[in-house]
Write a structure and sequence with these properties.
The protein is α/β, with parallel strands linked by helices and 308 residues long. It has 2 domains: 145 residues, Rossmann fold; 123 residues, Alpha-Beta Complex (UDP-galactose 4-epimerase, domain 1), CATH 3.90.25. Helices cover 35% and strands 17% of the residues. It is built from 10 helices and 13 strands. The strands form 4 sheets. It has a 7-stranded parallel β-sheet with strand order 3-2-1-4-5-6-11, with helices on both faces. It has a two-stranded parallel sheet with strand order 7-10. A two-stranded parallel sheet has the order 8-13. Helix 4 links the parallel strand 5 and strand 6. Helix 1 packs across helix 6. The two termini are 27 Å apart. It comes from Herpetosiphon aurantiacus (strain ATCC 23779 / DSM 785 / 114-95). This is NAD-dependent epimerase/dehydratase. It holds the Pfam family NAD_binding_10. InterPro entries: ComplexI_NDUFA9_subunit, NAD(P)-bd_dom, NAD(P)-bd_dom_sf.
Length: 308
């Protein structure tokens, strides 16, 4: 049996769809079962539990041979929704529960560019979580994706929103560019990430491996904006805004808006290289990954639902 944490999220919801095609039973950890009944069908069931509550994980792990751990946050919120609790401690809880239940296989969603640096709390907590998985003694495989795109995503849709309606820190018809716009990313399609996860389920040679996942090309932040403008048929001049000048506005939006276009953590990461020079995507899925320019027609539907 496979247990999936984060199965109702952006990547997890699509992963569950593909796991329905496999023969083994799949169990999805959910905090509120009555809101997740639509997942129950075929080989997929749900179990009540919370990655921040170790006791709730005991029953969830019964009969499980493989755990796919996807839970993480990119924005801290009130009520204890912190990077430390959700990215690091939750991983510790899931790993410990898996070991106690005799689980063997553990697939972990990390992040590209994780680093042990308290000044970068998202990257720091993801780094420490990954290291905990590596030291667990389980048969682990770690994935480090670059920016994940696909219908319902947050990052590319947010850039598209900036093109349509520039932020308060930039007068229209200008679109703001973080820093010099030269930070590199290697956007990878959600389905290619999911296919990589499914591939390693049946490949024991991937045990103990860390895989960078990127698309077929590295693009700068500015190049991504250009591509999005072309796709939307809009032309905007660019105004380059140093990160320190953007911080006050981003901080205020994070405090005042329920869904800010950019969070403080995301702003910091926009200045960090996020390319994947050792990307294993093509090796794992067996074909060339989908390029960003070939897979973002969904941004033409600005009101489409998005996952947080």
């Amino acid at each position: 049996m496979i247990l999936v944490t984060g199965g109702t999220g952006y990547v997890g919801s699509r992963l569950i769809e593909k796991l329905r095609q496999r023969p083994e039973p799949v169990r999805v950890l959910v905090r509120t079962p009555e809101k997740a009944q639509k997942l129950v069908a075929g080989n997929v069931s749900i179990v009540k539990g919370d990655v921040t509550d170790p006791e709730s994980l005991i029953a969830a792990m019964k009969g499980v041979s493989t755990v796919i751990h996807l839970v993480a946050i990119i924005r801290e919120r009130s009520g204890g929704i912190s990077f430390e609790r959700m990215n690091y401690q939750a991983t510790v809880n899931v790993v410990d529960a898996a070991k106690a239940a005799g689980v063997k296989r553990f697939l972990h969603m990390s992040a590209l560019g994780v680093v042990n640096d308290p000044n970068l709390p998202y990257m720091d907590t993801k780094f420490r979580a990954q290291k905990y998985v590596e030291a667990s003694g389980l048969d682990w495989t770690v994935f480090q994706p670059s920016v994940i795109f696909g219908e319902g995503d947050e990052f590319i849709n947010t850039l598209a929103d900036l093109v349509r309606r520039p932020l308060m820190i930039a007068p229209a018809p200008f679109v703001p560019v973080v820093g010099d716009g030269k930070t590199k990313f290697q956007p990878v399609w959600r389905d290619d990430v999911i296919d990589a996860f499914i591939k390693v389920l049946d490949d024991h040679s991937t045990i103990g491996q860390i895989y960078q996942l990127g698309g077929p090309e590295a693009l700068t932040y500015e190049q991504m904006l250009d591509l999005i403008m072309q796709k939307l048929g809009k032309k905007r001049s660019k105004i380059y805004v140093p990160v320190p000048l953007m911080k006050p506005a981003v901080f205020m939006m994070d405090k005042l808006l329920p869904k800010p276009p950019v969070t403080p953590a995301q702003l910091t990461m926009l200045s960090l290289d996020n390319s994947a020079p050792q990307s294993a995507t093509e090796q794992l899925i067996g074909h060339r990954p989908l390029a960003l320019g070939d897979g973002i027609d969904y941004i033409k539907k600005p009101n489409a639902a998005r996952h947080n």
